[in-house]
Amino acid sequence: MTAPQPLIAPEPGPAPDPALRARNARRRRRTAPRSERVASAFLHLELLVVAVIVIFPLLWIVGASFSPGTGLANASPIPENATVEHYVNLFTNTSYGRWYLNSLYVATLNMVGSVVLSALCGYVFSRIRFRGRKAGLLGILILQMFPTFLTAIAVYMLFLNFGLLDSLTGLALVSIAAALPYNTWLMKGYTDNLPSSLDEAAAIDGASRWTIFVRIVLPLMRPMLTFVAITQFTMPWMDFILPRLLLQSPDKQTVALGLFAMIEDVYQNAFTTFAAGAVILAVPITILYIVLQRYLVTGASAGAEKG
Amino acid sequence: MSTAQQRLPASVPGIASALVWGSGQLLNRQAGKAAFFFVFFAALIGWEIGSGNYYAGMDYTPRSNGGFFVKGLWGLITLGTKPREMTLTGLTEGDNSIVLMANGLISLLTLALLAIVWIWGVRDAAGYRRRLNDGGPRQSSLAYFKRLWEHSFAYIVLSPGMLLIVFMSVLPVLFGILVAFTDYNRDNLPPKNLVHWVGFENFATIFAVPSWTATFLGVLGWTLVWAVVATATTYAAGFLQAVLLANRKVRFPRVWRSIFLLPWAVPGIVSALVFRSMFNGQFGPISQWLVDVGITDERVYWFTDPSHPNLARGIALLVNLWLGFPFFMALVGGVLTNIPDSYYEAARMDGAGPLQQLRHITLPVVHRTVSPLLILAFVSNFNNFGVIYFLTQGGPDNAGYRFAGSTDLLITWLFTLTLDNRLYNIGAVMSMLIFVIVGTISVWNLNRSKAIREL
């Protein structure tokens, strides 16, 4: 007996070959009627307008960083006598280098701590049934609803009274703790969706929990690990409230604090220097985000699904 | 002997363990377990006696002789009794209420953790005896701990993270809640003054003193408007851009997409500060341009003109739109690529035009996926510290408000209250109010999602 033939021929795949589709589109465009060409022109006009609105402020700040002069009024998007003196000035006359290293230190510590702890906690909450699991998950969920800021003020009052202020490591620890509930939920949600058959097979072969975690689950968690790593690495560069509360002495400032201080007083006439600092801060993070956008967008939507 | 012991009722080792930790286990002839529980007991007593002064005899007072736990609890209850005073010999050592409160909280948390061990010990002693009386097998301490070790993988792995959370999040949250019930503010700063418990007085202040109530309601109202409008505009604009980009007529869609993603990729603090400079009234290029072109006769003070609070609010919303639309564009774009073409083909066969397809296919599908994120976006806009603080710092000033400007959100007002004005107690009350509002919305949102039901 031959295998029974399906009565109805299988439907063609929903999406035709993309190359074919593009060719069809091109043909349509060439032979498009007038009304379609007008619609296309309007479409591109809209895109162009939005693109200009998006780019102008960014172009303006980059231009300002190369503009001669120091004040806000001197800034121009396309400076005529472009100069790099503000970049030199930034590293010779301000503590920008120090701030940058401070931010880098906090960011690295925050990233490593967050990834390690949230991966461990997420794995345990997802795969192991133990007493207190539900209470723990709900507890950190409630904790997460207190905005970081509210804990920050209490941390400030506590640190103030115990003389713990002004420590970069302390700042990193508070940041890790503040983001840990959310990251744990992310990791737990992601691990829930990984097939548990692999773990079970390994367990039957006698692998310990730890081996299963390191050898099997951890490699599969990589997209979410990347997401947490990027968000936790970039966060301290932009964070303002916690460092503003916890750091005080001039050599313990972060980039965000320093830049804000530079711009707070317009009469200080350091606008173009601020612009240079802003560009140096923004460029690496912007490139990172654009290159890794796929991970960042899927990670963010996964967070919403899982609460 | 052994038969007599077997008839021992289960409550005897239980009560023994409750009085002297581990003694019940000793009655059950489990020396290892007994030692284990006794170590905790000894640590508790030893710590208290070692850190206090129990040789004081009749002169004993918790304030001067109490150990870590007794003095901690005493401090938590009284918040100190003797302020710092000037005497002939100089300043006396007064009580620092806030340090006392924090120490009390730490000792209370430690006691709570030890209480878990205590309950565990009592239940273990009684339960093991009951099983023996019912004819169960004897178990050595070693076997018990071996089994415990195998079953406690979860707790061991969780402990570093949980410890960090307890001391860096739970403790501060509890501390913040306690401060809301005290008079800790700039008129009452330790160690110079003592802080006192005042019950619900701070809550009463916010709701009974007219200027406070007016500020709170005004700021809350604007915060709600801000959160709704900011979320709606960014979502609508992001949706529109995503749909336009998905159009097959668009040339180089990847290039456009990367350009539109820039506001999302550039650090928020940088963009907000850039806009703050562009909208600077005195030197900013936009004011200058408006004058040059002749639209306005004089410079516009966008964020500092008290007579135009709504101008500042409108600009803040526009800047937020610039910052926020790319995220929704990326998100909706992802959803659009997952809608099968067959949906649209079927609609076209039924004679649906592009607008009808948009309304009846694209919109519902996208909306179903994105709606939980909308709630999340609402909450984060509700607490959007960055945009407001960096852009306007709450300005323009509002004479009718207490320590708040016209664009201040609850969160930025809270920041000013605490940091610039040192009204710690009022700030703590505000924190709790924000938590209640945000918490209610989040719980409502979570109840609809499947994450909780699957827990």
Give me the secondary-structure topology.
The complex is a heterodimer of chains A (307) and B (455).
Chain A: H1 18-30, H2 34-66, H3 85-93, H4 96-127, H5 133-145, H6 148-162, H7 168-192, H8 197-204, H9 209-220, H10 222-238, H11 241-246, H12 255-264, H13 271-291, H14 293-305
Helix pairs in contact in A: 2-13, 3-13, 4-7, 4-10, 5-7, 7-10, 8-9, 10-14, 12-13
Chain B: H1 2-6, H2 11-19, H3 23-27, H4 31-51, H5 62-65, H6 68-78, E1 86-87, E2 90-91, H7 97-133, H8 141-151, H9 153-179, H10 201-208, H11 210-246, H12 253-265, H13 268-278, H14 285-293, H15 309-337, H16 341-349, H17 354-382, H18 385-391, H19 410-420, H20 424-448, H21 450-453
Instruction: Catalogue the unreliable spans of chain A.
Output: 1-16
* Largest sheet descriptor of chain A: none
Beta content of chain B comes to under 5%
At the fold tier of CATH, the topology name of the largest domain in chain A is MetI-like fold
What structural category do the secondary elements of chain B indicate? mainly alpha
Mean pLDDT of chain A: 83
Give Rg of chain A in angstroms. 27 Å
Mean pLDDT of chain B: 87
Total number of β-strand segments of chain A?
0
- If classified by CATH, what would the architecture of the largest domain in chain A be? Orthogonal Bundle
Structure write-up:
The complex is a heterodimer of chains A (307) and B (455). By secondary structure, chain A is mostly helical. Chain A has 2 domains: 37-83, no CATH class; 91-265 and 277-305, MetI-like fold (Orthogonal Bundle), CATH 1.10.3720.10. In chain A, 74% of the residues lie in helices and 0% in strands. Chain A is built from 14 helices and no strands. The longest helix of chain A has 33 residues, at 34-66. The radius of gyration of chain A is 27 Å and the shape is globular. The relative contact order of chain A is 0.13. Chain B has 455 residues and is an all-alpha fold. Chain B has 2 domains: 2-199, no CATH class; 204-453, MetI-like (MetI-like fold), CATH 1.10.3720.10. Chain B has 21 helices and 2 strands. Chain B has helices spanning 2-6, 11-19, 23-27, 31-51, 62-65, 68-78, 97-133, 141-151, 153-179, 201-208, 210-246, 253-265, 268-278, 285-293, 309-337, 341-349, 354-382, 385-391, 410-420, 424-448, 450-453, and strands at residues 86-87, 90-91. In chain B, strands 1-2 form a two-stranded antiparallel sheet. Chain B is flat, with a radius of gyration of 32 Å. The two termini of chain B are 50 Å apart. The mean pLDDT of chain B is 87. At the A-B interface, helix 2, helix 4, helix 5, helix 6 and helix 7 of A face helix 7, helix 9, helix 11, helix 12 and helix 13 of B.
